[in-house]
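[Meeting: bench + compute handoff]

Bench side (C.D.) handed over the final construct sequence. Compute side (W.E.) agreed to return the predicted structure before the next meeting so the bench team could plan truncations. Sequence as handed over:
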Amino acid sequence: MEFKDYYDTLEIKRDATQDEIKRSYRKLARKYHPDISKEADAEEHFKQVGEAYEVLKDAEKRAAYDQLGANWQAGQDFRPPPDWDQGFEFTGDGRNADFSDFFESLFGRDGAQQARAHRDFNARGMDSHARVQIDLEDAYHGGKRMLTMKHSELDANGRPVLKERTLNVKIPQGVCQGQHIRLAKQGSAGIGEGGKGDLYLEIEFSRHPFYHVEGKHVYLDLPVTPWEAALGATIKVPTPGGPVDLKIPANSVSGGKLRLKGRGIPAKQPGDLYVVLQLALPPANTEAAKQAYREFEQAVDFNPRHRLGV
């Protein structure tokens, strides 16, 4: 996917005011409008100008886009960092427009865009959406978290300025990756007597050193010794809900999967926790250890490559 320089598309500098952005967009939209333009590829230019304006006219989207930095060049291969937009509040997501994959990779997430004008110039504020990270343990136990949200406001010169606010958010037990938490009246302000919109938080789990999550199910790669796998054993294993005893069947193999029913993310129908066995070999870093490996080699007739015909 190619990086798109929206400032270059609109032929403006990165510190342009919102008024300068609007003027440049109007000029280029007239220049490339498919109904009147005689320029080559006018329709494609018109779409690119519209996409750039969709981002730069919006203070929140512009602030988030600017955070990616000015070192990217148009046409460079680009992949956004997975947490590049953490905590940014966006109003609307542009999903109804024909925008590029680059735009969709940055802003094309589920989000509400429900502002509607009412009579007497009253309008409910737009709903906002943001992506936030929580710990996996929060999904098991629930509780309250202080989350810092970032949004943008225009200064006296019409340039976006990044602001922060802190919210005390209740994390419900059993929340899953991708689920939304609605915070009533925490979105954008309304017009006239219109009330505030809502804020929707899309949940993501922080990277965990032990577990990874698929839906409601949780997976743990568990190191086991050769004798535990071969002879069987009962060992203690960690889970996000606390340690449990797990029976390893005899003659287990590396990659074998054991299920702890109902110990995944808690819910009305809870997920399961899957323990994936990973055979861990002791290092042969002493003479005694080397001798033990030699004796084991003599005692066991075993060729792991016999299926390969060698």
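W.E. noted at the follow-up: The mean pLDDT is 82. C.D. will use this when planning the next construct.
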